[in-house]
Amino acid sequence: MPYILIQVTREGVTPAQKNQLISGATDLVVNVLDKDPATTFVVIDEVDTDNWGVAGRSVTDLRNNA
Amino acid sequence: MPYILIQVTREGVTPAQKNQLISGATDLVVNVLDKDPATTFVVIDEVDTDNWGVAGRSVTDLRNNA
Amino acid sequence: MPYILIQVTREGVTPAQKNQLISGATDLVVNVLDKDPATTFVVIDEVDTDNWGVAGRSVTDLRNNA
Amino acid sequence: MPYILIQVTREGVTPAQKNQLISGATDLVVNVLDKDPATTFVVIDEVDTDNWGVAGRSVTDLRNNA
Amino acid sequence: MPYILIQVTREGVTPAQKNQLISGATDLVVNVLDKDPATTFVVIDEVDTDNWGVAGRSVTDLRNNA
Amino acid sequence: MPYILIQVTREGVTPAQKNQLISGATDLVVNVLDKDPATTFVVIDEVDTDNWGVAGRSVTDLRNNA
């Protein structure tokens, strides 16, 4: 009964991409750990670029200065 | 000083229901573990149905094909 | 399909208390939100008192100076 | 490669304050643990006051009765 | 710069399986979202079966009565 | 009432360093957001190097091949 959290910046992830993340992450734990897909949860958390920092700066700032 | 995260799909949870979740979860750790309610946090995280997967499919998809 | 995380300090929580937390948290979302218990996860995360801070001090330190 | 989650109520945190949280949290793990800032993530999660409880009541309710 | 948390019960996950989870989850966000693997984190959290509940019972209990 | 999670690899973080992380993270939200330290939680989560991946490889593997 795995729980998988996928946290990414909110930059236009489409419903089709979300479906691919959900099915891919589920397949991963089914294939590697022989888990039951029926009790495998995948949660995608989209985070505003103002709210995600790397190397001490927000992604908003990093994108503007790329 | 417990921290309780309640993650559910965003499907019309009302403020009254949120209050019940907050008071109920707080009572639970007070009653079972004798914790101090003053330092018990409850955070409710509502997740879009596109962003929650179970059995390899999004909840949006599962609801549409129920 | 709720996911509930209960994070507490690691201070001798017994298996019986864990069972009460699991059943109580499950009942809460079943009763308040009419969720299906079969797809309700409860995860209890016990945290060493050195690793939990409140008011700027570790719980280890707070316990020693209580 | 630390990951730091800062969860606060959604009550008007400005982009400038977010930048201060990101740089401050990054500096903290760099200074204390000698971590590489390039692989230090900071995620700020703003939570509606209806969805955050303390002492068994929502922050919305606590603010209204302060 | 995705962050992926894979939470599973602690039931003998081997280092080789952990490597497969890490590489598989990284490949997933690289392939689906075109993310940079260099800033993709995967964290595996193994949870004791006493501390994981489903359907209102601990996994320890469910395994014993399977 | 902030909640701050600091997730790092388990590589010999000392109690003194943990205290610095706790006081530093608390000061940060007090100074930037004017939060009350009495209801500021800091949780440090140490993760085995086998269980943390970056760039598709475990930290154990990265350390061995540095």
UniProtKB/TrEMBL annotation, chains A, B, C, D, E, F:
Its EC number(s): 5.3.2.-
Domain annotation 4-oxalocrotonate tautomerase-like: ranges: 2-61
Keywords tagged on the record: Isomerase
First-level EC class: isomerase
Superkingdom per UniProt: Bacteria
Coiled coil: none
Family note: Belongs to the 4-oxalocrotonate tautomerase family.
Protein name: Tautomerase
